[in-house]
Amino acid sequence: MSEMVKTIAVLPGDGIGPEVVEQAVQVLNAVARRHGVTVLFEEGLVGGIAYDETGHPLPPETLALCRHADAILFGAVGGPKWDRIEPPTMRPELGALLPLRKELSLYANLRPARLYPALADASPLKNALLGEGLDILVVRELTGGIYFGTPKERTEDGHRAIDTCIYFSEEIERIARVGFEAALRRQRRICSVDKANVMETSRLWRDIVTHVAADYPQVELTHMLVDNCAMQLIRNPRQFDVIVTENMFGDILSDEAAMLTGSLGMLPSASLGNGSRGLYEPVHGSAPDIAGKDIANPLAAILSAAMLLRYSLDMEEAALDVERAVEHAIEAGYRTADIAGPGDTPIGTREMGERVIERLR
Ligand code: NAD
């Protein structure tokens, strides 16, 4: 059998980006080898460091690298050094991540919020609500809705402003399919969140999602109004498996779900489009306050690598191996400073990476 070779574009970026991405790359290397896959890593400049070296936060070479790769592993971009660049579209956050998503037509944002039982004390919720832990996946539409609809303007007298919420049925259908496909790999339950009692776009959303559900008879679909969902996430978060929702609702609900887990350093994300190529990144930023000190938590980046295995390389077993290894490292008591409790002795970024690798199957 010829060996499978996959190419991953690695964009470490700024601050702690390079430190956490290095650990994710080591984990990917180790797990891919065990599964008989050769991974080629090709590194590209992005963010503030790319601006310093090339004059652009997303140089054309980096974009070209991403276009031919099977997947993109992204660290984080930005920092005080680049906060005042003019025009603002040349600043790392606006000039790199948003255009990258746009250029690669990545319209689906997947944000799992998982609370490991051993980290229950980090959650702001009472232990009684958390049971065996939480495992929610928020699937957010990323390119439509009120953030992008036009007209979007303020009148000259400054007393009237307008944003426009538009959704096309094709946009809803494709994100709904991402949600249902994700649910198939999980507990096969999906909750579509909208505001169909008030908004026309939400009524279209509900119709289309219901229509798509006919293709997924194995998945149980429910609908929930967004205000109720915000409440249910606090009252009974364990009722959710996959939540699929439009751009603005997803923006808010994914942060709410994330906070239930209490630790920014543990949260991965994926941005997907048509086809298997995706962009994988920790939810956290470049954390300039702790950069270069070997104290950042690499688990969000490592768990992003697990998502990369699952969604872009179709290596579900390898993804599960990584997720289990992370869980076992946590259960064994290893903690970086951000998730350490009063009695814990924190370990560094590199050591946490090593502890995960030694627990791979
Ligand atoms: P941040 O996520 O970088 O940091 C917030 C706090 O969480 C800090 O105290 C930081 O030390 C801590 N933290 C974050 N990640 C951690 C980790 N892995 N381990 C341990 N602690 C961690 O958010 P911020 O401070 O608001 O932003 C810093 C910079 O990052 C800004 O320039 C911002 O624009 C940028 N940013 C980039 C992205 C991205 O690249 N996707 C996302 C958010 C913020």
How would you summarize the topology of this molecule?
Layout: E1 4-13, H1 17-34, E2 37-43, H2 48-54, H3 60-68, E3 71-76, H4 92-103, E4 108-115, H5 127-130, E5 134-141, E6 149-154, E7 161-164, H6 169-184, E8 189-194, H7 200-213, E9 220-225, H8 226-235, E10 242-245, H9 247-261, E11 268-272, E12 278-282, H10 299-311, H11 316-331, H12 349-357
Parallel strand pairs: 1-2, 1-3, 3-12, 5-10, 8-9, 8-10
Antiparallel strand pairs: 4-5, 4-11, 6-7, 11-12
This protein binds nicotinamide-adenine-dinucleotide (NAD).
CATH class of the largest domain: Alpha Beta
CATH architecture of the largest domain: 3-Layer(aba) Sandwich
Write out the strand line-up for the largest beta sheet, numbering strands in chain order. 2-1-3-12-11-4-5-10-8-9
Compute the separation of the termini in Å. Answer: 23 Å
- Overall mean pLDDT: 95
Walkthrough of the structure:
By secondary structure, the chain is of the alpha/beta class. It has 2 domains: 1-107 and 265-361, 3-Layer(aba) Sandwich (Isopropylmalate Dehydrogenase); 124-260, Isopropylmalate Dehydrogenase (3-Layer(aba) Sandwich). The protein has helices at 17-34, 48-54, 60-68, 92-103, 127-130, 169-184, 200-213, 226-235, 247-261, 299-311, 316-331, 349-357, and strands spanning 4-13, 37-43, 71-76, 108-115, 134-141, 149-154, 161-164, 189-194, 220-225, 242-245, 268-272, 278-282. The strands form 2 sheets. The protein has a 10-stranded mixed sheet, with helices on both faces. A two-stranded antiparallel ribbon has the order 6-7. Helix 7 (200-213) links the parallel strand 8 (189-194) and strand 9. Helix 8 (226-235) runs parallel beside helix 9. The two termini are 23 Å apart. The mean pLDDT is 95. The structure holds nicotinamide-adenine-dinucleotide. Residues 16, 20, 76-79, 93, 97, 264-265, 281, 284-290, 296-297, 300, 338 line the site of nicotinamide-adenine-dinucleotide. Residues 16, 20, 76-79, 93, 97, 264-265, 281, 284-290, 296-297, 300, 338 line the site of nicotinamide-adenine-dinucleotide (NAD).
